[in-house]
Amino acid sequence: MADRTSLIPLSKTEIAVGKSTHRSIYDRHGKLLLASGSTIETQTQLNNLFEQGYVQKNEWDELMVKNKASPPKIIEEPEPPPPKDTTSQMDDVRWYVGEALHMQALNETDTRFMVKLIGYIKGKSVLVTAPVVDGKHILIRDNQSFVVRAFQGKKAFAFTVTALKSVFSPYPYLHLSYPKHVISSVIRHDARASVKIIASLAFKNPDRAGAATLVDLSLGGTSGILKAAVAEKKEAGTISFKINVVGNEGLLTIDFIVRSVAPADDGDGYRYGFEFQNVTPQNKLILSAFVHQTIADQI
Fold it and tell me: How far is CA 108 from the centre of its chain?
């Protein structure tokens, strides 16, 4: 049993897999976890020690504390600023007939439709197909307000309109007000959407499975928080999760490779980084629509 008052958190630079420990490692109550000279066998063991481990303070630790009071100045290259949103007019954008538009009722985040652009009359109105839900055209109230979003390549567009009139003859379509301006933003290919999605993980060994809370999602991969360390780097498996795109819920099952494992920021569990593999064209299309829609919602 070690003196608790002399214990300090274990440094991540002090131990590594396959290396022997130079100091005994204790838990926060002073109970011995690993004796000095022991070898770290696995990444899981290493992660557990990082989460729970403490060592007894020595003279070197005291010196490091003093040096931290006046750290040397380090000149770092500033990161490039994120691309700024730009404002333009409706007719400055190269729209095309049949382009998919995502409509979201203001103050009703669950009310979303996908319609297609028929055309527009400058300064007058924008014409779109009538929204369809479960195979049926729905009635849009006059003067109801919407945010309309669209995606072209690496750009997302958004503008606010009100419904002017629903027309049902000779075919259903909708007149929207002409927007005062259109906001556009560049969406990078590797942009990650902040999410909170429950996912299930499966590996070749059926006894090794788990549940993760996904915290971000991109076209190339995702990060998730797990309660326990269930896999190590470079292990392969499949991940399954549900996402909602324009009111339609779909289940995605995608192959992955574990690229990173680290203790969670709050110390509760582990943060895993998964790289997607062999994504089918259909899943890629659904994933792309969801990621772009989620990011565009923040414009």
Answer: 23
Q: pLDDT (tens digit, 9 = 90+) per residue, 261-272?
A: 888 877 788 999
What is d(CA 23, CA 33) in angstroms, rounded to the nearest whole number? 11
- Tokens encoding 129: 């197909």
Short-list 294, 292, 247, CA closest to 156: 292
Give the span between the Cα atoms of 85 and 94, in whole angstroms: 17
Beta-carbon contacts of 90 under 8 Å, excluding residues fewer than 6 positions away, are 120, 122, 126, 159, 178, 179, 181, 182
Report the amino acid identity of residue 274. F
- How do residues 62-82 score in pLDDT, each as one tens digit? 545 554 444 444 444 444 555
User: Which token pair is 282?
Assistant: 């259909």
- The closest alpha carbon to 271, from 218, 219, 233, belongs to 233
Tokens of 147: 């945010």
Q: Which residues contact 60 (CB under 8 A, 6 or more apart)?
A: none
**CA 251, 247, 125, 158 torsion: positive or negative?**
negative
Question: Quick one: DSSP state of residue 117?
Answer: E
Confirm if 110 and 156 have CB atoms less than 8 A apart: no
